[in-house]
Design a protein that fits this description.
alpha+beta; SH3 type barrels; 2 domains; three-stranded antiparallel beta sheet; 12 strands; about 25% helix
Length: about 190
């Protein structure tokens, strides 16, 4: 039986991540050592293009991972784990359980090591120097004696070069360091 036929049978001819039926293709999880349906996932055209080119990732599309991360198929769980890591969805990752072998497989592509050289907001959107972001929660500013309120715009941010999880900006005229997980790009 061909891999594509086995995956169609396993998934019910739908994308194993989002459930779409458009342009289904076989995606082999890297590193590809052998062509085995147990190491492949059936993806729709949208999922496949965003997995192949992470620069085009739309965080809203990946809300489907809330459901697919609970799949009983190991390859789907591993791919969901990798994507949640890329999107920095740590709250969902904390809920997810992979046994030692599956976790080793999930980490085998190296993406979890933070090799992503882009600063990303809470939704996984790439940030650039000069962008405007909005705080998504109240933040106590240590040493300044005030709280930066949720919804506050921070204009003309700068990126911390050696830490992809931090940006710098001014709130109430005070220069502060902000964790990217607490901002969204506007």
């Amino acid at each position: 039986m061909s891999i594509e036929k086995a995956l169609n049978e396993r998934s019910g001819a739908v994308c194993e991540l989002c459930g779409s039926t458009d342009g289904l293709t076989v995606y082999a999880l890297p590193p590809v050592l052998d062509n085995d349906s147990d190491k492949c996932v059936l993806l729709c055209a949208t999922c496949n293009s965003q997995v192949q080119d992470p620069e085009t990732m739309d965080a809203n599309h990946w809300r489907c991972l809330n459901d697919s991360m609970w799949s009983t198929v190991p390859a789907v769980q591993v791919l969901a784990w990798r994507l949640l890591n890329q999107l920095k969805q740590f709250d969902l990752l904390d809920m997810m359980y992979l046994d030692e072998d599956m976790l080793a497989w999930a980490k085998s592509d190296g993406a979890h090591l933070g090799l992503d050289t882009k600063h990303r907001d809470c939704n996984g959107v790439a940030l650039s120097a000069g962008d405007t972001v909005v705080l998504i929660k109240d933040l106590n500013v240590k040493g300044a004696g005030f709280t930066a309120k949720r919804g506050t715009s921070v204009r003309n941010i700068s990126l911390v070069r050696d830490n992809m999880e931090q940006i710098e900006g001014k709130v109430n005229g005070q220069g502060i360091v902000i964790l990217t997980q607490y901002v969204k790009k506007s």
